[in-house]
Amino acid sequence: MPGAIYAEGLVKSFGKVKALDGVDLEVPEGTVLGLLGPNGAGKTTTVRCLTTLLRPDRGKAVVAGLDVLKQPDAVRRSIGLSGQFAAVDEYLTGRENLQMVGQLYQMRAKAAKVRADELLEQFHLADAADRIAKTYSGGMRRRLDLAAALVVSPPVMFMDEPTTGLDPRNRQQLWEVIKQLVSGGTTLLLTTQYLEEADHLAHDIAVVDQGRVIAQGTSDQLKARTGGERVEVVVHDREHIAAASALLDKFSLRGPGKGDTAVEDHMRKITTPVSGGAKLLAEIIRELDADGIEIDDIGLRRPTLDDVFLSLTGHVAEAGREDAGDEGDDGKRTAEGQDRGRRPGKEAVK
Amino acid sequence: MSAVTDAVRRTPAGNRIGRSIRDSLVVAKRNLIRMVRIPEVVIFGLIQPIMFVVLFSYVFGGSMDIGGSTSPQVYREFLMAGIFAQTVTFATAGAGAGIAEDMHKGLVDRFRSLPMARGAVLTGRTLADLVQTALTLLVLAVVALLVGWRTHTSAGEVIGAFGLLLLTGYAFTWIGAVIGLSVRTPEAATSGGLVWLFPVTFVSNAFVDSSNMTPWLRHIADWNPFSATVQACRELFGNPGVSTSDAWPMQHPVWASLLYSVLIIVVFRTLAVRKYRSAAA
Fold first, then answer.
1. CB distance from B1 to chain A under 8 Å?
2. How far apart are CA B280 and CA A85, in angstroms?
3. A92 vs B11: CB contact, 8 Å cut-off?
4. Cβ–Cβ contact A69 with B under 8 A
5. What is the ipTM of this complex?
6. Block mean pLDDT (10 aa), chain A, length 350
7. Residue A82: closest CA among chain B residues belongs to which residue?
8. Which candidate in A50, A337, B25, B157 could, as Cys together with B153 as Cys, close a disulfide (CB 3.0–4.6 Å)?
9. Which residues neighbour B43 within 8 Å (Cβ) at sequence distance 6 or greater?
10. pTM assigned to the model
């Protein structure tokens, strides 16, 4: 029995551009999967295929036990979708928007009204219920959009970059709402460009690049594969780069001489993967000092989306990349675990 | 929460026609609310035909030969059926622009992810436009009466004429829907919705007596679906200038108008719904 969301080999092309190149996914019931990737990776296309908005060229998709291609109408009854752009009518009030959506979910007018009031209360929009959505702030619109997706309390939810463009406070608020929602047992597929967000909300993370899932696992598993934390040193004098690099290499996670320490000459920056945190940092500073190497900056860096990408694909996550299909390039593999033996960030440094 | 699920289940998906009508009405209500909140659109839609009535009847009236008479009063009575018909067809542009706008906003994704009838977004829009058209016709009829237009037939026939006008307007909004779904911007839908209406409404019997046209143009005018509605209205209002052409639509204008409208609705609704379903937005 496949999970609440199941996709196998989804392929979708737009003209020459292959947006999806065989996406496989499985989200067990009651869990949250974070689909992580840069712009143009295929996140939105995946969501659109799974929510019946787009017909994949090839592949299989099952949502809430229903075949997406064969029973689209039944699927629509069981899902809620909250998109990248707040999908509400600007000239309708919050209440009218929710009522309309309820009725289009085939609820009776009265039931839709009752449900709209409940949701307005739950999403802290009761005070603004009778104002047109055009007057809402960005955060309020997102909340209204999310409320619209929850009108029938669907068992499966899709959220496409729910917090993109929101300020930190509104993002936090929306996270709380989403957490509450999934604690109630809803299965959720969430796309995001932020590792932090996936980390915060998702049980499992699937990394998407060029239309394929290139890795899937818990956030800890993925971070372990990026090499975890790293120390970054910027030396004051160009002549000290070699000495500092040798020094740092001693602290490298896999031991010295493995070529893990990266140097960016023009920045006078040296980076090496470590474990040991602040204590290790203090030790490195002491040794640098003892060797008379003057530094401009030193710090511990935690993995970012770029780091995840570097480690998994060997290239930086670029926005709107279009060179899909240049497989065979070093580091681009569909299957998990094939990047063993390679180290993060090799190609990114001189 | 269980109340919600019950409410959803109670409406069987099998009753497709009932669902289609219900969903269309929900969407129509949404569009009507929008019209009330953005009244500029409706107001400009009113000003234009009123301007046409005044301009045509005072500028052209007196120099037009209608059935051998050049009296301005005769031209005014002749003109009104044409203006009414032109006004209802101009709803095309509004429908097209509205649908194009919807298609390029996130809202259409919401609609398409809901278990609603597929054509309801479009049908709802065209129904709302029908209400707007009816309102415009009402105001226009009052203005027409003020400048001296009169009917000379029974109330039933006059109502029948307005019925034909509304049906024609409704049919044309489906052409607008197809245009709106085919262009990339609402602006393109507005101009694309209007530009072809000028030849269609002018190469007709709407503003001049088509029997004075060169023969090939006259044939086009006689078979123009738009002419059939104008001719039918003149007959039903008892207004002067009814064409004596022996072309079938001119001989049986009421039937011709009905047939043309139904044909346009069937063809363009099918096209529009198909385009809507396959649109990637």
1. yes
2. 16
3. no
4. no
5. 0.86
6. 84 90 92 88 92 92 93 91 84 96 94 95 93 92 91 92 84 87 90 85 90 86 73 90 89 81 87 82 90 90 69 58 35 33 33
7. B110
8. B157
9. none
10. 0.78
